[in-house]
User: Which sequence fits this backbone?
């Protein structure tokens, strides 16, 4: 089992919102920029790695019970996105790693994506 804090350490990510939730369990991960792909993934207790910075990311994460969104490639979500995440109890992090690298690092650390 991994926690959001374990994921943060593996990626060297910076927490933008939700530091109080770093002890949450993470079972799987999904890396995508298309929210339709994320909807097809639909796992709970998962994290989402994405470079898409718009409110739809937060709405999708909320619908699927995703516990953490990590913006890759140094993407910076705006204040509206951060406020939405805060209201829904979502952890938001950012990392300079590219999505492929970040997913590989998490896979190497033992986190899996699971079958669709």
Assistant:
């Amino acid at each position: 089992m991994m926690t959001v804090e374990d994921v943060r350490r593996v990626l060297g990510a910076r927490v933008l919102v939700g530091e109080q939730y770093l002890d949450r369990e993470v079972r799987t991960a999904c890396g995508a920029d298309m929210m339709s792909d994320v909807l097809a993934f639909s796992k709970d207790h998962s994290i989402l790695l994405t470079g898409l910075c718009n409110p739809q990311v937060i709405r999708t994460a909320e619908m699927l019970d995703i516990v953490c969104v990590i913006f890759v490639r140094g993407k910076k979500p705006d204040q509206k996105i951060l406020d939405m995440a805060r209201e829904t109890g979502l952890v938001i992090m950012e990392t300079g790693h590219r999505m492929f690298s970040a997913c590989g690092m998490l896979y190497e650390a033992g986190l899996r994506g699971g079958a669709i």
Remarks:
- The domain at 1-107 is CATH 3.40.1390.20 (Udp-n-acetylmuramoylalanyl-d-glutamate--2,6- Diaminopimelate Ligase; Chain: A, domain 1).
- The chain has a mean pLDDT of 93.
